[in-house]
Amino acid sequence: MRFFHLADLHIGKSINGYSMIEEQKNAFRQIVEYIRIEKPTAVLIAGDIYDRAIPSTDAVQVFDEFLTNLSKEGVHTFIVAGNHDSPERLNFANRILSEMKLHIAGSFDGQLNSVTLDDEFGTVNFFLLPFVKPIMVKGYYTDREIENYNDAVKTILESTDLKFNERNVLLAHQFFIMSGNVAERSESEINIVGGLDEIDAGVLTKFDYVALGHLHGNQKVGLEHIRYAGSPLKYSFSECLHNKCVLVVEVKEKGEVNVSALPIKPIHDLREIKGEFEELLVADESVVGNKEDYLRVTLTDTSEIIDPMNKLRTVFPNAMVLHFENLHTDIDLSGVGATVDRIENTSEYELFCQFFIEATGATMTEDQDNIIRDLLSKEVDDETY
Known about the structure:
Blueprint: E1 2-6, E2 14-15, E3 18-19, H1 21-38, E4 42-46, H2 57-72, E5 76-80, H3 87-91, H4 94-98, E6 102-105, E7 113-119, E8 122-129, H5 134-138, H6 149-158, E9 167-173, E10 175-177, E11 198-200, E12 209-213, E13 219-221, E14 223-228, E15 245-251, E16 257-263, E17 270-275, H7 277-282, H8 285-288, E18 294-299, H9 308-313, E19 319-324, H10 340-344, H11 348-360, H12 366-384
Parallel strand pairs: 1-4, 4-5, 5-6, 8-9, 9-12, 10-11, 12-14, 17-18, 18-19
Antiparallel strand pairs: 1-15, 2-3, 7-8, 13-14, 15-16
Helix pairs in contact: 1-2
């Protein structure tokens, strides 16, 4: 049986005030085209469908279009909620949708839900584990001591009846690590302080394939059949060197699993360039690459430059972040110096991002960003009433 493994779509995400909606639409079009060519039986999406628990209208419409196109191709689609998602919103109408080959596990209800499909080699059981916290699991297992994430997930998996003569696939969104291995993490992920969300990947070894979400880099977790698909797009400059893709998994006879990757090409890449200010302004694309890419620009000049971001944007219109290497500063001037025209067409959120940078000399942390988004969302709700 062949299936696609995706994760961490983060639909509706903005990077330094730039919306990724069009980039996400482009990525989904490529995935649908790959489905037409490869003809998988199923598509597995391992959480963080949306970037926010309360997604924007645009984000919901983009995901709706993606699911509609998947349905037209006749594939089964399996979805679990991630830590960014609202479980209740994803769960809506999931029983009705399952009859249309759309299987969603938004919240944990005490047991690991599963769906069974068959092929020429027999039965494949797909188990769906949405993102869980220890408090979500304790109430269902009162006879077990559940103090942390590892206890919670281990309890769920040990309580699941696996038929070991059949092939079993797990879809999950948690932070699994294998002893002795170091996971590749990025700035756009939520990192729990002290690694309290870490789960020993040893609990996964009995599955024939484990389709994970949460980490944004495509990587295996110790073993070939336990994998993070990574995000379909680069969502931070720490991901500049990532090769974004969709994983193609072929589960044949019991114990035979092959994994390959199909590249996802962005409209605008997320990259870094470095050099002296005047040299970058006149540099050829053979030196600096596509000038319309999303860029973090590092200037190596030793003297002060007046209004550098606006001047850079005359050549690099999507320059996101400006960093000075030799001016005894570590300030990211993202979006500073916007023109009047840009301000008039800029959202309240983007304007606040620019204000925050000018006022503090730094970009917001993810927690601060989430607070501002929630406050602005509440303001819109109040105005509605």
